[in-house]
């Protein structure tokens, strides 16, 4: 069925009781804006009313979180940074919905970022501060909270939040699924346990669900999602579609082991001479021989999203479903360290966040900085559910609803880094990116440190490609003299001192011990 040898998980419907004829007629009436307005005695009913007025539909909207791995924000062509014009479905979503132009992950590494997304907490709070540890079985997650409100909680694709030492990279036992107890076709770390073609994921009962040599991994997971959407749903659903691509393959691929990008057959050839972003072009890395493959992966994701939208339309779910597109971190193609992420650069932390559906079809761009820990509370808020006290993020819906909300919004993001790039902390503001490094910290044993040093500082307005590091500059002819650069009337050391102190404050707010951050005459 649908390109697989077996459809595991759940079949049939998610029933919550049958609607009466009166209920069905009333629901049909409410789907017609003019008649609904008359029936409710309102002068106007639009999608924003779901969020801002006393108007409440009989049933809360469905929520689909489409999560692509390692997707750079500037590869959505409608964002105006990439001239290749190869993401038509994302571009349509971009123009229809609400776009958060400066969405930043709080931890640019797979498992930690996903833990931030699922819980609304920093990675040091979830204890998933590197790849390996998993969420605790009783974690408060987006799934547990939607389930409390009568939603089904469903997951397809890459999980990467079960403890690797107990579970491994393949099938995930129920207690480690973060509350996603309904439809499930997934793998813990598919970059190692599955292949782009001719492989398998695991269903709700941890039975293999296979796909053949003629089915690409992205297409297989997309077909699983389409099969789910075609089921009968008598209560609202939360569905996460978590694609591995455009993340690189880290293991078996056909007869060989591959550490690199593997797009659908023939797709790399379509992008042999692609546009190269400025931050890559200036630096050595593996982009000269991997970038065209990355483009092919992105194209596959865009086509997948198009099929999801088409299925929603065919099943009359389009106007009842909030769809979110995002990613866990971006990709700098090893231009900044030995990984593809794990740094404070835009090419590591800046990812897309596009939302369409009830309350978000506003053709709106929001420039304020929002972060991964803000998604969970915002989705709860968007469907009228309470936000649990465990959440450290905040709902960004005021930025959607209220034109004056930006005046009170804390326009900065705190970032924790633990990975190949070492242990570091960063602050991203509208103008600056400041990074402090703990050079002696053991990234495998400790999530943080008590001692950091100035490491990187970029003026994002003057240097959007982040090629000129302003941190720790000294006069090498007279090493005791610091070079003083000015940004307008502000001396760079003064700006550094302010960002340093603000970063310390944010670390304490996140639950970390107050560290010491030293000046470091380091200038790479």
Structural commentary:
This protein is an alpha/beta fold and 524 residues long. Helices cover 27% and strands 23% of the residues. It contains 16 helices and 22 strands. It has helices at 21-30, 33-40, 49-52, 88-96, 110-119, 123-126, 142-148, 164-167, 190-193, 217-229, 278-281, 287-314, 346-349, 375-382, 397-401, 492-509, and strands at residues 13-14, 62-68, 98-104, 152-158, 184-187, 197-202, 208-216, 232-233, 237-243, 249-253, 256-260, 321-327, 350-351, 353-356, 364-371, 412-419, 422-429, 432-438, 451-459, 486-487, 490-491, 516-518. Strands 2, 3, 4, 5, 9, 12, 13, 14 and 15 form a 9-stranded mixed β-sheet that branches. It has a 5-stranded mixed β-sheet with strand order 16-17-18-19-22, covered by helices on one side. A two-stranded parallel ribbon has the order 1-8. A hairpin with a 5-residue loop joins strand 6 (197-202) and strand 7. It is globular, with a radius of gyration of 23 Å. Mean pLDDT is 88; it is low at 1-56.
Output the keywords:
alpha/beta, 5-stranded mixed β-sheet, single chain, 524 residues, 9-stranded mixed β-sheet, disordered N terminus
Structural class designation: alpha/beta
Rg, Cα atoms, Å: 23 Å
Shape verdict:
globular
Low-confidence stretches: 1-56
Number of DSSP helical runs: 16
Tell me the strand percentage band: 15-25%
Helix content: 25-40%
State the separation between the terminal residues, measured CA to CA. 55 Å
- The averaged pLDDT comes out at 88
Biggest β-sheet strands, sense, barrel = 9 strands, mixed
Number of strands: 22
């Amino acid at each position: 069925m649908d390109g697989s040898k077996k459809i595991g998980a759940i079949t049939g419907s998610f029933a919550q009781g049958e609607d009466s004829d009166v209920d069905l007629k009333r629901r049909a009436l409410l789907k017609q804006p003019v008649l609904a307005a008359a029936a409710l005695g309102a002068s106007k009913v639009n999608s924003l009313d779901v969020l801002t007025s006393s108007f409440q539909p009989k049933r809360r909207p469905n929520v689909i979180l489409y999560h692509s791995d390692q997707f750079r924000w500037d590869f959505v062509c409608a964002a105006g940074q990439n001239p290749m014009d190869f993401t038509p479905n994302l571009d349509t979503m971009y123009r229809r919905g609400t776009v958060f132009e400066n969405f930043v992950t709080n931890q640019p590494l797979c498992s930690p970022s996903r833990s931030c997304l699922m819980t609304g907490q920093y990675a040091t709070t979830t204890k998933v501060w590197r790849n390996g540890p998993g969420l605790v079985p009783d974690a408060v997650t987006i799934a547990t909270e939607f389930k409390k409100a009568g939603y089904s909680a469903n997951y397809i694709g890459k999980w990467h939040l079960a403890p690797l030492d107990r579970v491994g990279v393949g099938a995930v036992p129920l207690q480690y699924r973060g509350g996603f107890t309904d439809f499930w076709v997934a793998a813990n770390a598919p970059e190692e346990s599955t292949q782009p073609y001719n492989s398998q994921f695991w269903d709700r009962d941890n039975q293999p669900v296979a796909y053949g040599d003629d089915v690409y991994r992205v297409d297989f997971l997309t077909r699983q999602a389409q099969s789910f959407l075609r089921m009968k749903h008598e209560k609202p659903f939360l569905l996460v579609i978590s694609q591995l691509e455009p993340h690189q393959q880290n293991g078996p691929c056909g007869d060989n082991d591959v550490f690199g990008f593997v797009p659908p057959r023939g797709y790399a050839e379509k992008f042999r001479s692609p546009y190269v972003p400025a931050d890559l072009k200036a630096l050595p890395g593996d982009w000269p021989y991997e970038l065209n493959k990355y483009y092919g992966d992105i194209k596959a994701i865009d086509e997948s999203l198009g099929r999801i939208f088409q299925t929603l339309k065919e099943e009359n779910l389009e106007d009842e479903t909030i769809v979110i597109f995002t990613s866990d971190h971006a990709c700098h193609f090893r231009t900044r360290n030995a990984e593809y992420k794990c740094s404070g650069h835009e090419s590591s932390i800046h990812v897309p966040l596009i939302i369409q559906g009830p309350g978000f079809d506003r053709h709106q761009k929001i420039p304020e900085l929002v972060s991964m820990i803000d998604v969970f509370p915002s989705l709860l808020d968007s469907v009228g559910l309470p936000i649990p006290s465990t959440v450290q993020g905040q709902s960004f819906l005021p930025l959607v609803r209220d034109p004056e909300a930006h005046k009170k919004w804390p326009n900065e993001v705190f970032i924790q880094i633990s990975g190949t790039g070492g242990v570091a902390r960063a602050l991203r503001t509208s103008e600056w990116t400041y990074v402090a490094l703990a050079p002696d910290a053991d990234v495998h044993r400790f999530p943080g440190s008590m001692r950091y040093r100035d490491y990187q500082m970029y003026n994002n307005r003057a240097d959007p490609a982040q090629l000129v590091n302003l941190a720790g500059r000294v006069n090498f002819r007279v090493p005791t003299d610091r070079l003083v650069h000015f940004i307008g009337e502000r001396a760079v050391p003064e700006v550094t001192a302010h960002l340093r102190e603000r970063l310390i404050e944010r670390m304490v707010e996140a639950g970390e011990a107050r560290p010491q951050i030293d000046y470091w005459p380091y200038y790479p």
